[in-house]
Amino acid sequence: MNKFGKTLFGALLSLAFVLPAQAETLMMATTTSTDNSGLLDFLAPTFKADTGIDLKWVAVGTGKALEIAKNCDADVLLVHAPAVEKKFVADGFGVDRRQIMYNDFVIIGPKADPAKIAGKSTADALKGIYDAKAVFVSRGDKSGTHNAEKKLWKANNLTPDQEKFYVSAGQGMMATINIAAEKGGYTLTDRATWIKFAAKQGDANPLAIVVEGDKALFNQYSVMTTNPARCSNVKVELAKQFEDWWVDPKTQKRIGEYTLEGKQLFFPNAGK
Amino acid sequence: MNYFTNGFLTAADLLLNMDKATFSAVEATLSSTTIALICAMILGLPLGFLIGYTNFPGKRLARLISDTLLAFPTVLIGLLVYIFITHRGPLGHMGLLFTIPGMAIGQTILALPIIVSWTAQAIENLDPRCRQTLLTLGASPMQTALHTIREVRYDLGMVCVTAFGRVVTEVGVAMMLGGNIRYHTRTMTTAISLETSKGEFAQGIALGLVLLGIAFIVNAALTWLRHKGRV
Amino acid sequence: MSQIFEIRELRKEYGGLLALDLPELDVASGDLVSLVGRNGSGKSTLLRMLAFLEKPSSGLLNYLGGPEPRREVTLLLQNPYLLKCSVFDNVTLGLCLRGDRENLPARYAEAMRAAGFADPQAMASRYSSQLSGGERQRISLASRIILKPRVLLLDEPTAHVDAASERMILDTVRACLGQGTTVICATHDRQLFSDFPTVREVELRRV
């Protein structure tokens, strides 16, 4: 039974190595767009250098990110669904919400543009899709983008959810764009994911931007701290440093410096 | 389809240059599955042996439960463990969610029924003459039990290797409980699903190749054990 | 000669079906008993009870030998089983189970020669799958006689082996008897022990 003893010893040893690796780390729940765009990979080393804190993040839809914070499983949040966030704070789940930056959504669709909406306003474009019964692929995953999309339909008194042309993907942004490309449909996407998609497709890209630059497509990102009054495990001190760091002019400048395929993706607007 | 060739070229590059993200995913996978497998073996081998070797009231029920759990959907395991180890759950104070030990808990539960049921099966399939032979050679009950285990050692090896293969290729539990945090809990399978969702196929292919390599080793081990077990 | 087994009104039932009904049998130490009877007369059942693998349903079965019956009586199963280890380990297993590890190679060689193997060393590291049926039978026999048992129980030891192996097995039995071992052997072949000076034939009636 000597072998068995050795195995057991090895198991305990490996546990001992794994468990204490939790010094000075901050757990953030964020949205897939910040992670997939590469922004976090760009900023995290600076954060570590400035504060000494190791930032770990789970990248999920905004809905799931808020849920994780509700369960006290994350210290801080970086999300983009202002209305939902305000309710989250009002309900006592989060504190210290600060706006830090924005990017914008674009509506993309087949190059042939079957609904004839290119260059129109967001409102007219949505009406055009609805009336033409053109395929529209929705994220359908309670993410920030999904929330923004639902808000846009609602603002124009349209209820496409039950319609046949409305496809609810239930997946991330890149997967959703892929579905739109396969089905020849329209979708709402953040610009970062679109740029990545377009760069990969090159000339063979079946999709193109049809609507952009409309105020209604403005996408605000904010940071928040999980309410320590509800969740005693929240690292309040580190969270404070985290929030201060995001609104620091140095960081704000750096956000503006991040580019993908030569294009700026995020526009800092802390305190504005 | 230059997705494909590009993917493979970049994959080779990542592997040959020991890319940090790629290897940390391999490391996270191996450490969580090793912990999970060891825990599942410590719990499952004795339990499976008891079910297969002895007669006790409720033995059939225990076997039935274990066999049923073989079909446990991994996302359901993930969800149940999540409920237990989230900070608002009963084990929340231990801070296990989004850590390697947290993932290992779910993977242990995934591996346990495989080890219990198949160990019991291996013991039950053993020729009854083995026990009689040991008894006629004067073995005590304890010696009979120990030599019975020795007799199925290759089968038990196969059981553990199979459980390892199941756990290492699983994605639902690792995603839900580990959270796919880069350099921490991003495993090979969660990285593949993440990279694919980002449209980055190269790292997915690189990790897929490593997984295939592991699957090859696992199957080579199984073949060897099957061969050894036939003597 | 002292008595080693005393049997009175021995019955064995399996799920209500009577498998053996033996009114009386006494076996003296050093006897050779040939157990005959048709299929289903309970020969194997009786041997298993004599080897303490099974308990009688009713009646008396007394072992009158030494203090450790389970280690003094051994049974060679009809279709012997070799464990998944080398021939050497199989043959010396019983001794190891008794914690008796003295001089194993020499005792192994002695037992194997007694079972008719001219070159025990050549067999030592072989495995079950590399052996013929007759060799398996004789190796199992060697694993029993190495224990120097008081009672050797044999269940159809020559049923599935060739003539040469049968001769070797009978020689082994003869050698055991010469050392004072009691041998009880179930067989279909009433002529099996025709060359032996004293053999007691016990016929079991079908129940």
List keywords for this structure.
heterotrimer, B: mainly alpha, MetI-like fold, 11 helices, 78% helix, C: 207 residues, alpha/beta, Rossmann fold, 3-stranded antiparallel beta sheet, 7 helices, 32% helix, 26% strand
| Biggest chain pair interface | A-B, 30 and 26 residues
Count of the domains of chain C = 1
DSSP strand content of chain A: 15-25%
Largest sheet of chain A: 10 strands, mixed
- Give me the secondary-structure category of chain A: alpha/beta
Low-confidence spans of chain C: pLDDT under 50, at least 5 residues? none
What is the general shape of chain C? globular
Task: Round the mean pLDDT of chain A to the nearest integer and report it.
Answer: 88
Largest sheet of chain C: 5 strands, parallel
CATH superfamily of the largest domain in chain A: Periplasmic binding protein-like II
Nearest-angstrom radius of gyration of chain A? 21 Å
Distance between the termini of chain A: 69 Å
The CATH topology annotation of chain C reads as Rossmann fold
Structure description:
The complex is a heterotrimer of chains A (272), B (231) and C (207). Chain A has 272 residues and is an alpha/beta fold. Chain A folds into two domains: 23-103 and 220-268, Periplasmic binding protein-like II (D-Maltodextrin-Binding Protein, domain 2); 104-217, Periplasmic binding protein-like II (D-Maltodextrin-Binding Protein, domain 2, 3-Layer(aba) Sandwich). Helix content of chain A is 44%, strand content 24%. Chain A contains eleven helices and twelve strands. In chain A, helix 7 links the parallel strand 5 and strand 6 (166-168). The longest helix of chain A is centred in the first third of the chain and has 17 residues, at 2-18. With 231 residues, chain B is mostly helical. The longest helix of chain B has 34 residues, at 20-53. Chain B has helices at residues 2-16, 20-53, 59-69, 74-85, 100-125, 128-136, 141-151, 153-168, 172-178, 188-198, 201-229. Chain B contains eleven helices and no strands. The relative contact order of chain B is 0.17. Chain B is globular and about 65 Å long. Helix content of chain B is 78%, strand content 0%. Chain C is an alpha/beta fold and 207 residues long. Chain C has one domain (3-202): 3-Layer(aba) Sandwich (Rossmann fold). Chain C is 32% helix and 26% strand. Chain C contains seven helices and eight strands. Chain C starts with a strand and ends with a strand. In chain C, 40% of the residues are buried. Classes of the chains: A alpha/beta (272), B mainly alpha (231), C alpha/beta (207).
